[in-house]
Amino acid sequence: MRPALAILALLLALAAPAAAFDPREALPDPALETRARGLSAQLRCLVCQNQSIDDSAADLAKDMRRVVRERLTAGDSDGQVIAYLQQRYGDFVLLKPPMKPETWLLWFGPLLVLLAAAGGLWIAWRRRRAVPAAGPVPLSAEERRRLAELTADR
Amino acid sequence: MVAELGHYALVLALLVSLVQSSVPLVGAARGDAGMMAVAGPAAQALLALLAFSFLALMHAFVNSDFSVLAVALHSHSAKPLIYKIAGTWGNHEGSMLLWVLILALFGGLVARYGANLPPSLKSRALAVQGMLAAGFLLFILFTSNPFARVLPPPPDGNGLNPLLQDPALAIHPPMLYVGYVGLSICFSFAIAALLEGRVDPAWARWVRPWTLTAWLFLTGGIALGSWWAYYELGWGGWWYWDPVENASFMPWLVATALLHSAIVVEKRDTLKGWTILLAILAFALSLIGTFLVRSGVLTSVHAFAVDPARGVFILALLVVSIGGALALYAWRVPDLKGGGLFAPISREGGLVLNNLLLATATATVFIGTLYPLLLDAVTGQSVSVGPPYYNATFVPLMVPLLIVMGVGPLLAWKRADLRGITGRLLTAGAATLVVAVWVGSLPLNRHAEAYDLATLAGFAGTLRLPAAALGMALAAWLVLGALGEWARRVGLFRLRPDESWQRARGLPLAAHGMTVAHLGVAIAVAGFVGAGLWKHEVGRVLKPGESLTVERWQIVLAKLEDETGPNYKARRAVFVVTEDGGAPFLMAPEKRIYDTQGQPTTEAAIRTTGLTNLYLVLGDEAGGGAWAVRVLVEPMVPVMYYGIMVMMAGGLMSLLDRRSRVGAPRRARAAPVAGGPAAAPAHGDD
Prior knowledge:
Helix content of chain A: 55-70%
Structural class of chain B: alpha+beta
Strand content of chain A: under 5%
Largest sheet of chain A: none
Structural class of chain A: mainly alpha
Distance between the termini of chain A: 76 Å
Number of strands of chain A: 0
Number of strands of chain B: 10
CATH topology of the largest domain in chain A: Helicase, Ruva Protein, domain 3
CATH superfamily of the largest domain in chain A: Cytochrome C biogenesis protein
Radius of gyration of chain A: 29 Å
Distance between the termini of chain B: 64 Å
Oligomer: heterodimer
CATH architecture of the largest domain in chain A: Orthogonal Bundle
Strand content of chain B: 5-15%
CATH class of the largest domain in chain A: Mainly Alpha
Shape of chain A: elongated
Number of helices of chain A: 6
Largest sheet of chain B: 6 strands, antiparallel
Number of domains of chain A: 2
Helix content of chain B: 55-70%
């Protein structure tokens, strides 16, 4: 985070925040308003810890919610609104990280793990079948002693 | 004076832990019974010293001794007594002390109740516990001394963060810590088994109750945290995929996998290396969770770099303990001989698939949580990983897991005959289909507002209906799978009712526990799906006397009033609500301002019908005496928590099964045929 942004964040965090989403912000058209709420839930409040602008009470989140509604009223598609905010605030604003070379590992990591684990499992299973199971482990001296003790009781 | 004694006890505890971590280990290597016997008394002494130290800190908090820095920074004389007590662990220093105390508590329990453990295993496990305690005691004494004094003492303290002044949050950290730290026992037993060079069904049995205990507390702690976020933060959400939440969720996922893989070791003497690895990873993730939350690295990588002392210390602890454990694992695991073979379609196969999916799910959460930190540290770029990511990666992994979970318990060990259960599967499948169609036709799906699962995954309205139908169908599938297995075991409808009753009574408690736990998962899944997809929200600006109608509720704003609490001032809105012309009731959401920190908090008003929550939040003043109000209708949110409770009840039943009671020396004598703890479990399946 750049220093100016950090200072801004600090100031906003100190200022008494308003409540989260306020019904007065709502657009008159219910379909448009639903889209606005859906988009707000996908955008991160930049000065908060892991909150969407829909959940956040910070003033910056309020401003961003207004921007979303302005763009929608102006006729932007959902994708255009997202692109507009991404251009202004960077990838950080997207709660759904963009797909790009730097995030390939993020997006495909889980799949790789699944494939690697499944592959490992397959190999282990094949190998296990090839080699007959080892016989039971022989008892240790201590265990033989205990066994003798226990059977002597009877 | 008391604070100094507490500090002194802490230093003594460090010395004891050093003895506990070395002498028994040498004793076990040499076969010296005297040296091995040191482990037990040392563990008990460690527990006594740490308990004393913790009570000394609590004494400072209860008496508001502001000459102790931690008290001055985190407490306040006007706080209610319960929050003064909870304040002991409501700060970094105190919570770390609680962490080691719980570690010592588990060590003490093993020492006290582990009489039937082989002496070398017991002393080695306790030595590993001692090493962990020593590491964290060094951390506390050198970087986070809870007894540090401040001179001159301030006239009053800073106060607790008002969001945290809440009964659920007072007990949430200790519960979570018991879960986190309880996994240390599995870790210590795993290391001890690697040192011994053998893992057998008896080992799995000894570890099971500890894993179950840790799992129960983790589940409870996570649920409590979620419930707190639900009613306190005022957003009506219950899980945010926040890194702090993820930090506790990852050990839970691995502990769940461990519970299941340990069953395979216990019953079939196979999957040993994997189970040991899970035991190590479960605690490793607990440590990583502690590191993430305690080092400040989550707030920002840069904040961590500015004051790195604590973070670097925990990081070093992490590297030494996890790295050491994994190195030992790599070295010794080839010696662990695998046991029974099994076909892919078998109970073992189902459990392996369960583990594969749970492990991948854990890896997904791990990647999502740590990727932003890593990317920032390496390239300086910042990305956010929020709920949409997890909905697209984690949720799809749960679908096959739940399908397997419905079938798995029906399969026989070793080699299952699918044809034998085809009839059962077809019945369950048909019933599942009926549920899917029925859920798809529910009016709940028609509300445009659902901002959680579907919208976040980027599918908006188009996918919400199929998602709800699929989710509920999976829940139904699970119910039928769990009940079907139980019915087969007791011979329901196949035998005479009295014979079935006899069989049900003859089943071990753990078997009933599994059925109940799986039913709990089914109920919770139904809850997650409904709560995520059927939320309905209305926001309005109201003046006193005005009303609005949301679904079947008529909501009238009666009046606004001011209230003064012990250390806060509140503005409260009183609503009169009637449900479909029924008897009216009052709901009163508040906005509070705490005296010390001036930060407003919302107290939502929640009314539950048992299936649906009505959730009211008071927003800002809109001028002219009008107030912004949010009304959320949240179907299935209570069901989600019922499911978790049922799941925990199942775990508890399994824990209370006398077969899993560790260290009941009576047990060995009461089982004449068993002939010692290493005997294979007498109870099979059928």
